[in-house]
Design goal:
- The structure is a single chain.
- The protein is an alpha/beta fold and 352 residues long.
- The protein has 13 helices and 6 strands.
- It folds into 2 domains: 6-41 and 339-347, 5,6-Dimethylbenzimidazole Phosphoribosyltransferase, Chain: A, domain 1, CATH 1.10.1610.10; 48-332, Rossmann fold.
- α10 (268-280) links the parallel β5 and β6 (288-290).
């Protein structure tokens, strides 16, 4: 297969009837997608968002403004079509699939729905305040399950995919994963999550700080050139602090990258998952489009560490994949202009 060079793709973009660079980020998005697909006529087929849900043992320690049962209740809301991600996915004709990765509760009444998948590893992780959240077997099973969902339960033609999540307590998991992978002090990684403020936020910081000291896993795999070191330590961090839905997201990201899809990365939780995925597959960044900058304080530092610019900055921090759904029309616009906008020669316009 002939490789189309970056310079050639850029020349096609620059020769559209506009001053060079005048479409701003749309041009860099078009360039990236054309590079990934190795064509000057990129396309987006069967856009899909996978929403993985799981409960976290750390919620028992009071790190969230909402009770743990909200995870179950919100999954019901997804399945009934009432959540923000349902609204935005429907608006933009994005397929939406909901996965029970480890929610406490039973969804047997909804097992007949074509967009629901029961891939429950267990009913919630252990409380990482005093023990490791997942066994090695559970973590490995969750990653493999995420890979299977991404491949077997999505359209064979799907080439653009986003990742959403739901799990009370998962901003705590994301904060510790981020802190451990990037070697950033935990207090710079903790945010409001579901709306924790004041004394409750101070309590959250104390709990997470003590958990980090308890496990003593502050390492820097992302910064290492040793791939084996990256993988080993990233997986240890994930199973110590992560959730089943996060492990499944990582598996889905890895499998989707290997199918050469465009990966739409949502906010703080999804980006923390992406940090681990990148430790396991360093080249995955080439396929990733970061859809928005979350209002979670730690997300900005993840984006800076990865040296990426998000498409949107709307002060969103909901999760669910909502950032992916809202950003998708902009990604679509980038593909449409490179395909359908006239060149100077075609339009008979002077390019002087």
């Amino acid at each position: 297969m002939k490789i189309i060079t970056t310079d050639f793709i850029q020349s096609v973009i620059d020769n559209k009837t506009k001053p060079p660079g005048s479409l701003g980020r749309l041009e860099s998005i078009a360039l990236q997608i054309a590079q990934v697909q190795n064509t000057i006529n990129p396309c987006l087929i069967d856009p899909t968002i996978l929403v993985f849900a799981g409960d976290h043992g750390i919620a028992e320690s009071g790190v969230s403004a909402f009770p743990q049962k909200v995870t179950y209740q919100m999954v019901l809301n997804f399945l009934r079509g009432g959540a923000a991600i349902n609204v935005f996915a429907k608006q933009h004709n994005i397929q939406l699939k909901v996965i029970d990765a480890g929610v406490i509760g039973n969804f047997s009444d909804y097992s007949h729905l074509p967009n629901f998948y029961n891939r429950k590893i267990a009913e919630g992780t252990k409380n990482f305040a005093n023990q490791i959240a997942m066994t090695e077997e559970e973590c490995a099973k969750a990653i493999e399950s995420g890979k299977e969902i991404a491949i077997q339960e999505t359209s064979l033609n799907c080439n653009v995919i986003g990742f959403g999540e739901m799990g009370i307590g998962n901003t705590s998991s994301a904060s510790l994963i981020m802190s451990s992978v990037l070697n950033i002090p935990i207090n710079e990684c903790i945010g409001k999550g579901t709306g924790v403020t004041g004394e409750s936020l101070e309590k959250k910081f104390k709990i997470l700080n003590e958990a980090q000291k308890f496990h003593d896993l502050r390492v820097t795999p992302l910064m290492s050139d040793d791939a084996a070191y990256n993988s080993r330590d990233a997986l240890e961090i994930l199973r110590t602090f992560g959730g089943f839905e996060m492990a499944q997201i990582i598996g889905a990201m890895l499998a989707s990258y290997r199918k050469n899809r465009i990966l739409m990365i949502d906010g703080f939780i999804a980006s923390a998952c992406f940090l681990v995925a990148r430790c396991l597959e360093p080249n995955i960044l080439s396929n990733a489009i970061f859809c928005h900058r979350s209002d979670e304080s730690g997300h900005k530092k993840i984006l800076e560490a990865l040296d990426v610019s998000p498409i949107l900055d709307l002060n969103m921090r909901l999760g669910e994949g909502t950032g992916c759904a809202v950003a998708y029309p902009i990604i679509e616009s980038a593909v449409n202009f490179i395909n359908n906008m006239a060149s100077f020669d075609e339009a008979g316009v002077s390019n002087q």
